[in-house]
């Protein structure tokens, strides 16, 4: 079963093709190196500014997933400025072509199924990851030995799995291209460390609506290419699961109808879009609930659901 190609994925792919800022030379003539922040310079990154198409796409994606829970500090692009990073870029391109040939070819990486995925890294390991690759995936190993990435439309899941970098809640999230090829289902508790057969290239927790891309330790430095770094400040209690609203069950269409009497049409349209995305399996139900909570606030939701429950009892 194929994966849904998100609007974010399509737009960012288009932006990359038009600008071709990622090249084998790793150069970008439009960027003034004298203006690089020291952090960007040290890590071979280029800071993107508002108005840049890639910046705007990633910013909207982050705000849609996180709302006002987190502060987005900066978005940086991998400049592939060193010999090592350019070698990784070339290696990724070679393996993408190999996976395409393995599965019968196809245009625009269709058979290779190159997607965008999120993963969290610590600041101390960022430089080595960009230069040399991943050495020790930071996860609980519940889906086998490998690197776990969240799909581009599941940033919230990635952020919840990350640890605060410092006392001020800094998080560092890599947005990478991932060669998925043909994926197999991997169940929780798996001890797998490579594809179960030559037929497969990667793993997912769910074929229809994956929340995890599993790139085996044997593939994580050939099938994953970090392209962007997003720096975010998150609250200390962000990783904790939000308290469930203890109230009667209420169908989403009914909830949307009730909210339409209290919220402006623009917000209702956003909620309806999120609901459609969940129905189309582009986002999980838990992510839908979180996004609605970000828009409405818990106080309004509790009021509506309690009123609905009270009405249902009479």
UniProtKB/TrEMBL annotation:
Coiled coil: none
InterPro entries: Poly(ADP-ribose)pol_cat_dom (IPR012317), RCD1/SRO1-5 (IPR044964), RST (IPR022003)
Domain PARP catalytic: start-end pairs: 27-253
Listed Polar residues bias regions: 22-36
Predominant location category: nucleus
Gene Ontology cellular-component terms listed: nucleus
Segments for region (Disordered): 9-36
Compartment(s) where it occurs, according to its Swiss-Prot or TrEMBL record: Nucleus
GO MF assignments: NAD+ poly-ADP-ribosyltransferase activity
Domain RST: 243-314
Keywords from the named record: Developmental protein, Nucleus, Stress response
Pfam families: RST (PF12174)
Protein name: PARP
């Amino acid at each position: 079963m194929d994966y849904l190609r998100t609007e974010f994925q399509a737009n960012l792919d288009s932006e990359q093709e038009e600008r071709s800022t990622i090249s084998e030379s790793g150069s970008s003539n439009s960027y003034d190196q004298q203006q690089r922040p020291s952090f960007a310079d040290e890590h071979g990154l280029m800071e993107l500014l508002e108005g840049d198409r890639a910046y705007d796409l990633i910013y909207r994606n982050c705000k849609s997933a996180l709302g006002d829970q987190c502060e987005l500090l900066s978005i940086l692009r991998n400049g592939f400025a060193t010999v090592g990073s350019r070698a990784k870029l070339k290696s990724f391109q070679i393996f993408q072509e190999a996976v395409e040939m393995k599965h019968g070819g196809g245009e625009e990486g269709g058979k290779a199924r190159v997607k965008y995925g999120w993963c969290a890294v610590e600041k101390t390991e960022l430089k080595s990851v960009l230069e040399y690759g991943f050495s020790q995936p930071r996860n609980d190993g519940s889906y086998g030995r490998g690197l776990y990435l969240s799909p581009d439309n599941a940033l919230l899941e990635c952020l919840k799995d990350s640890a605060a970098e410092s006392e001020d809640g800094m998080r560092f999230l890599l947005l990478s291209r991932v060669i998925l090829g043909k994926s197999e289902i991997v169940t929780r508790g798996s001890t797998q460390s490579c594809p179960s057969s030559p037929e497969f290239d990667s793993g997912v927790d769910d074929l229809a609506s994956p929340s995890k891309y599993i790139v085996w330790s044997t593939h994580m430095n050939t099938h994953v290419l970090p392209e962007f770094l997003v720096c975010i400040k998150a609250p200390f209690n962000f990783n904790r699961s939000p308290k469930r609203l203890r109230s009667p069950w209420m169908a989403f269409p009914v909830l949307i109808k009730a909210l339409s009497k209290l919220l402006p049409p623009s917000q209702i349209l956003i909620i309806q879009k999120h609901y459609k995305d969940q129905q189309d399996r582009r986002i999980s139900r838990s992510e839908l609930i979180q996004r609605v909570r970000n828009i409405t606030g818990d106080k309004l939701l509790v009021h509506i659901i309690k009123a609905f429950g009270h009405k249902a009892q009479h």
